[in-house]
Amino acid sequence: MNRNHISKVDLNLLKSLHALLEEKHVGRAAAKMNVSQSAMSHTLTRLRTTFSDPLFIRNAKGLEPTSYALELSGKLRFILDEIDTLLTPKSLNLATVRCQFRIQTHDFLIATYLADAFRAIKDEAPNIIFDIQILTADSDQKLDKGELEMIIGAGLQANPRFMQKHLADEGLVCLLDKHHPVLANWNSNAIFHYPHIQSSLLDDKDDPVTRYGKEAGLPERQIGLYTETLNSQLALLPNSNLIAFLPMSLARQGQQFYGLELMSCPFPLPVVTIRGIWHERHQNDPVHKWIRDKIDKAFKQLKGNK
Predict the structure, then answer these.
(1) Model pTM?
(2) What is the pLDDT of residues 10-25, one digit of tens each?
(3) What's the confidence (pLDDT) of residue 185?
(4) Residue span of the signal peptide, if any (predicted)?
C-alpha cells in the first residue's frame, strides 16, 4: 500500500481486514462487524484492490489467508491497538470497560497469587474477561503478534524488546509425605537416595537439584515422576516416597490441603524470580496499566502476609 495515498484509504477497512483475519469466514466477520454478508464481501473486494493482493483464498471451511495477509496480521493488530490507545479517554470508568485480557502463566502462580488478583480486578471491573493459558514455548511470539496481553512467569529470561516488572522472588523448598523415611535422617546425601519429581520442562543442565547433585558428588539422582506443571505434583506426593522441590508459596498449599511435610532444603538452591512481561504497544494503555498495577499489588500483599 502506498503511504502517500493513505488519505484516500477508509481506515474502517483495516478493522474489517482484522475481523476477516480472526474469523477466516466472510459471514462470521460480517457478524462481528455488525454488517451484512454482502457488505463484507464488497469490503473484501475493496481490500484486495487497496493492497493489490488476493488476501484470502476460499476453501471448504471459509477463507485461508495468503502469505501477504499473514504478514499484515501482526502489523495490523499493532496499528489498531495504537489507535485504541490514542482514543481511550484518560479517565477510566472501570464499570464500563469491556475487554478480553489474555495471559500465559504457570499453574502454581494461578493457585498462589493470581486467583486473588483476578477476583480483585473483577470486583471493580466486572466486564474484563480473563483468558488464562498455561505458558508455552512460543509465548514470546504470541506476545509479538498481539495474541497475548501479558506473560507472568517464574524463572523467565525476558526478551529485551519487551517491558517487564519484577513481581516477587520465591525460594525453593522440599515437600514430601509426612511419614517419609528420609525425615529421620534429613540431609543432602539421604535425599538423593530417594526418587524425586522433576519438571519435564527442565533438562538436567537447567535443573538446580540435578546440577547440585553432580557438583557435590552425590549419588545419581533418581527421577520417580515427571510432571509438566508444578501444581500437579501436590496430589502425587501423599503416601509415596517421592520428594518434590517447589516454590514456597505452592509448598504451603501442599502442606495445607494435602497434609504434606514442608522442609527447608539442606543444600542451597537459587531463588526463582517471578516477572510480568508485556509488549511495549501496551505500555501506556490505561486499562492494561491498571490491570498490571492490580496484579503487582496482589503479589505484594500476598508476599507481605506470608
Answers:
(1) 0.67
(2) 778 888 998 999 899 9
(3) 96
(4) none
Q: What is the average pLDDT score of the chain?
A: 89
296 grid coordinates? 503487582
Residues 6+ apart with CB under 8 A from 226: 197, 198, 199, 200
Cβ neighbours of 81 (radius 10 Å): 17
Full 3-state SS string of the chain? CCHHHHHHCCCHHHHHHHHHHHHCCHHHHHHHHCCCHHHHHHHHHHHHHHHCCCCEEEECCEEEECHHHHHHHHHHHHHHHHHHHHHCCCCCCHHHCCEEEEEEECHHHHHHHHHHHHHHHHHHCCCEEEEEEECCCCHHHHHHHCCCCEEEEECCCCCCCCEEEEEEEECEEEEECCCCHHHHHCCHHHHCCCCEEEECCCCCCCCHHHHHHHHCCCCCCCEEEEECCCHHHHHHCCCCCCEEEEEHHHHHHHHHHHCCEEECCCCCCCCEEEEEEECHHHCCCHHHHHHHHHHHHHHHHHHHCC
Rounded-to-integer distance, Cα 257 and Cα 250, Å? 11
Q: What is the structure's pLDDT at 1?
A: 43
